[in-house]
């Protein structure tokens, strides 16, 4: 039962909860009763304590909606070309370097895209900690990293390669794999997995 939370709700409003809990249990004897509320039952329950009981039912309804909510799927990352073209449209034309992380679920659907760092015209300083924090917060299965080269040359620098390989190894250790690292411009993209610069994970 959720009686402990209901009791806490009434106590937070300054009500003595015993009477309120008795009323609540009379109308909603089981947890599943809250999923079957009709308008007549709701109005009858609210009438016992109009302000508090209406607020309680609204809170329960909000909780039910939150449980049903899912992150939107932006696109599938199963094919690197599809994802590369998406990343091009997002940051390929930016005048400053940006580093973004795409978060994917177990079906490789992109469920989150966040700009993690913005740098100068030629470089961006990134922290693995910040990248993985974003992914953990989103409860992601895996990540893809993307940054742009405003120069238009998408070939990775030595720093690009070493940083991506470092993230790849950290991801394996954390069981939050880096699936690929992309460099994009307005005209092109570069996938390190496609070009055998990162291991392709099964």
UniProtKB/TrEMBL annotation:
Annotated organism of origin = Convivina praedatoris
Q: What is this protein called?
A: MPN domain-containing protein
Kindly indicate whether the keyword Zinc belongs to this entry.
Answer: yes
Task: Give start and end of each MPN domain.
Answer: 73-198
Please, which domain of life does this record's source organism belong to? Bacteria
Q: Which InterPro entries match?
A: MPN, RadC_JAB, UPF0758, UPF0758_CS
Cite the Gene3D superfamilies for this sequence: Cytidine Deaminase, domain 2 (3.40.140.10)
Specify the taxonomic lineage: Bacteria, Bacillati, Bacillota, Bacilli, Lactobacillales
Q: Which family does it belong to?
A: Belongs to the UPF0758 family.
Provide this UniProt record's keywords sorted from A to Z. Answer: Hydrolase, Metal-binding, Metalloprotease, Protease, Zinc
């Amino acid at each position: 039962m959720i009686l402990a939370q209901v009791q806490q709700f009434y106590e937070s409003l300054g009500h003595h909860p015993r009477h309120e809990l008795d009323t609540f249990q009379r109308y909603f004897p089981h947890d599943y009763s809250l999923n079957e509320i009709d308008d007549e039952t709701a109005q009858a329950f609210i009438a016992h304590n109009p302000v508090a009981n209406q607020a309680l039912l609204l809170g329960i309804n909000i909780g039910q909606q939150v449980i049903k909510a899912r992150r939107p799927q932006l696109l599938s990352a199963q094919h690197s070309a599809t994802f590369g073209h998406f990343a091009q449209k997002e940051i390929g034309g930016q005048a400053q370097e940006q580093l973004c992380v795409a978060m994917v679920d177990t079906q490789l659907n992109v469920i989150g895209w966040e700009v993690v760092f913005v740098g100068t015209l030629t470089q961006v300083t990134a922290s693995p900690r910040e990248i993985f924090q974003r992914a953990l917060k989103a409860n992601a299965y895996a990540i893809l990293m993307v940054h742009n080269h405003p120069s238009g040359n998408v070939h990775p620098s030595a720093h690009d390669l070493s940083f991506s390989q470092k993230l790849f190894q950290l991801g394996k250790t954390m069981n939050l794999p880096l699936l690929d690292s992309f460099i994009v411009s307005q005209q092109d993209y570069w996938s390190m997995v496609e070009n055998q610069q990162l291991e392709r994970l099964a």
